[in-house]
Amino acid sequence: MLADMENLRKRSDRDRVDSIRYGSINFARDILSTSDNLSRALDAIPKDARKTETMINLINGLRMVQKEFTSILAKHGIKKIDALNQRFDHNLHQAMMEIESEKVEEGLVIQEIQSGYTMHDRLLRPSMVSVAKKPEKDKKKK
Predict the structure, then answer these.
(1) Going residue by residue through the chain (142 aa), what tens digit of pLDDT does each one get?
(2) Cα distance between residue 44 and residue 40, in whole Å
(3) What is the Cα–Cα distance from 103 to 134, expressed in whole angstroms?
(4) Residue 65 to residues 40, 102, 139: CA-CA distances in angstroms?
(5) What is the model's pLDDT at position 89?
(6) Which PANTHER family match (predicted)?
(7) Dihedral angle, C-alpha 120, 123, 129, 134, nearest 10 °
(8) Is residue 117 helix, strand or coil?
(9) What pTM does this model have?
(10) Residue 139: per-residue pLDDT
């Protein structure tokens, strides 16, 4: 009976810690699209348009906002998954396509289509990636 009470107390404490730590997980998932859109906005600015002082100031301002946003995410335990040139991991990555490559080892992530994130030790969103595979002609030789 005493052991049951102790186990209940430990489980209750663990549940309380988890609710504090992960209580905002749905909000965190929703806010990631803001980070994606900010990156897309910066990427969409044509190279030739980046020469005027006005555009340079706008780009610098957007980069400062992006840096602060990333800092706030990190403060709350949200980290971007490092996917490029890593071995494909089905726990962290979602393969969107395979790309034949003789230069890159099979199974390595060679393109990140959308960034993935974790919150503490839980997956918020997988990285959407392209994975290298051996060309068909190389596979037939073996």
Answers:
(1) 778 888 888 888 787 777 766 678 888 888 999 999 999 999 999 988 888 899 999 999 999 999 999 999 999 999 999 999 999 999 999 999 999 998 999 999 999 999 999 999 899 999 999 999 998 875 555 5
(2) 6
(3) 9
(4) 13, 39, 47
(5) 97
(6) GRPE PROTEIN (PTHR21237), GRPE PROTEIN HOMOLOG, MITOCHONDRIAL (PTHR21237:SF23)
(7) 100
(8) strand
(9) 0.76
(10) 56
Cα gap 58→8, rounded to integer Å: 55
Burial class (CB in 10 A: 0-12, 13-18, 19+), 101: middle
Instruction: Extract the tokens encoding 83.
Output: 């996917």
* Selection from 29, 30, 37 nearest residue 117 by Cα: 29
Q: For residue 134, what are the contacts with CB-CB under 8 A and spacing of at least 6? A: 100, 101, 102, 106
What are the tokens at 108? 């390595």
The CATH number of residue 79's host domain is 2.30.22.10
Q: What's the total number of domains in the chain? A: 1
Helix H or strand E segment including 96: strand 93-100
- Expressed as residue numbers, the domain containing 45 is 2-135
Question: How close are the terminal C-alpha atoms of the chain, in Å?
Answer: 64
DSSP single-letter state for residue 87? B
Does 142 map to a domain? no
Q: Which pair of structure tokens corresponds to residue 131? A: 């994975």
